[in-house]
Amino acid sequence: MKSQQFSSTQDLRATFTTLKRQTFFYVGEGNNGELVRQILSKRPNFQEQRTPFNAHLIWKQSNKYFNYFQLGQLKSKKVTINHLEHHYVITNKNNLFHSLENYCNKTKMNMDDLVPKTFIINLDSAHVQTDLIKFLEYFTQCSKQSLNIWLMKPPDLNRGNGIKLFNDLDQFVELMENLNKKAQTSVKQQKSITLTLDNKRKIKLSIDDQDKQIVLQKYLETPLLYNQRKFDIRVWVLIDHKLNYYFFREGYFRLATERFDINNIRNLYIHLTNNAIQKHHPYYGKYEIGNQISFNDMQRYLKFQKPQLNTIIQEMKRIVKLTIESGYHKLNECRKNFQFEILGYDFMIDKNGHVWLIEVNTNPCIEESSPLLKQLIPRMLNDAFKLTIDQIYETEQQTQTYPVNGYKCDENLWDKLGIIQ
Questions:
Q1: pLDDT at 132 over 60
Q2: Cβ proximity of 421 and 247 under 8 Å
């Protein structure tokens, strides 16, 4: 009897120890969450649950409505989320612009060397008329020396959503008036404003909470081309739970489906290289699977040209450092040890080899839309988890590997760039 009782006590202790060591994780819907589930499930003592309630690790597309005060509050339970509390200081287009602007002013740098000329129009500001006049003066000046193509972007969207092109005043007015029509269909509280243009033309607008700001950015009219088509570069940046930040060694180039034609600004398949846009073209994937090529593919293409890929990568790393440093005043407020973030940085190169930052994205797309991404993304995520989740939860060594051509399976492909202090 005593032997049975002793055995039962041992079993209970063993069960309790096992449960104590288990890490329960929740993965929200969307953006290839299934891949995240698969990678986490391969870790010893990791178990999925269907709701974020009582989960240790929470993986979501957004940190909206998440209460950061619960992170690490209980000694017996570590709660971690895959978003930094203040990532918006660089992932929101408006905030990124102002962060870089302030940083460049302090360091005596020329911001126009980092990002294409940008204007932020705050429609809910008392200075909206002044801001609009500044843009129109610059717009008029540019019209004398180029085709004067501009992008209108919403500040909070990514993957090419909501981007419009224009190159004359009438088109700009039309886009502004379309904002007005959108606001008029909204049931939210609206505010009416009247904008007076330089030719005394007036635009009457009704704005709601979603349309308080617009981003106007100069379009790069002379991009470096790949086989006569436009491209941009997607690279990944990790900020870990101790605010170290890293650059993933392999990224990819996203290509347009149609040949570059600067005179046709109505065709977005020529100008916007986002996969979310290009995948709807009937000839999507005709030249490359998923309209994507690897760093090695581009290196071969640029072999006898300038710039060389290594030069491009070093410049991208430099700009990543600048963006992180520009946002340090908010990023270093993040509660250390229980949050991390994988960011998607987008760059372009002009025909002179100059590297331009286009934007920084939270929740970058991790869809495996090509054999290249089926190889890179699982490795990128798993290596990021080794630097974050496995450190936080003291995960036992795993045997699952995610091979990438040219690298050893036990090699972590995240290169440390610095630490936010």
A1: yes
A2: no
Q: Which domain holds residue 320?
A: 223-419
Residue type, 64: K
pTM here is 0.90
Taking residue 279's Cβ as centre, other Cβ atoms within 10 Å add up to 14
Both tokens assigned to 67: 């209460």
Residue 328's nearest CA partner among 202, 404, 203, 244 is 244
Cβ atoms 278, 257 nearer than 8 A: yes
Same domain, 20 and 148: no
Q: Which residue has the tokens 């989740």?
A: 389
Burial class (CB in 10 A: 0-12, 13-18, 19+), 408: exposed
Domain assignment of residue 110, yes or no:
no
302, 308 Cβ separation under 8 angstroms: yes
In the predicted model, is pLDDT for residue 14 greater than 60? no
85, 333 Cβ separation under 8 angstroms: yes
What single-letter DSSP state applies at residue 224?
Answer: -
Instruction: Please tell me whether residues 284 and 351 are part of one structural domain.
Output: yes
* 265, 167 Cβ separation under 8 angstroms: yes
Specify the pLDDT at position 223. Answer: 97
Confidence check: pLDDT of 185 > 80: no
- The pLDDT > 90 percentage for the chain reads 64
- Note the helical H segments in 44-91: 88-91
Q: Are residues 372 and 257 in the same domain?
A: yes
Lookup: tokens for 280: 């709807």
Arithmetic mean of pLDDT, 121-136: 83
Half-sphere exposure of 117 (CA within 13 A, CB side): 14
For residue 124, the Cα-to-chain-centroid distance in whole angstroms is 26
**How buried is 99 (Cβ within 10 angstroms: 0-12 exposed, 13-18 middle, 19+ buried)?**
buried
| Cα–Cα distance for residue pair 293/273, rounded to 1 Å | 13
Q: Are residues 267 and 403 in the same domain?
A: yes
Domain boundary among 81, 107, 130: 81
Closest CA to 116 of 236, 254, 216: 216
Q: How far apart are CA 106 and CA 390, in angstroms?
A: 38
